[in-house]
Amino acid sequence: MSSQSPFVKTRKPGERIFCFLLVIGSVYLFWQSYAISGFSSLSSPGAFPLAASATMVLASCITFLNTLKTPAAEGVRFVYHCFPPIVAIIMALILIYSVVLESLGFVLSSFVFLFVSIQFLYRRGVLTTFTISLLALIVVYIIFRLIFQVVLPEGIVPEREILSSIKSLWS
How many CA atoms, within 13 angstroms, populate the side-chain half-sphere of residue 85? Predict the structure, then answer.
């Protein structure tokens, strides 16, 4: 345990690097904002993005300088406190999902992703996980594919044929 008072501000592992990356990102956004149209007047198209990104640069520089002065927290490990294994596993599942989405298609890859993720995080029975995954997929599919008509990767499930046969039942 830490011998410091709970009210003393300490720096977590990775906080200094993260703040430095915020400065770099803010400077990049400032440069991109200036590239929109320069700063010819207060009403120019780039004025608001330029002001917002300048505020970001200022705030991120102040935050970074404060982290340079802040002492490191005692007994805090990056892997355990900032990037626990559960986060790494979910990130790996998202990566796998994004890789197989195009080849397997939205329906199959999303169902498998939801099922594995929910089973891993919720830790209930397989039937409960199956039901939650299926209902979530149906809701998402109806909203995005049928209502908003977003074209989703079809993959190995013949979606168009299934939808046309369902439509023909109603005709």
Answer: 1
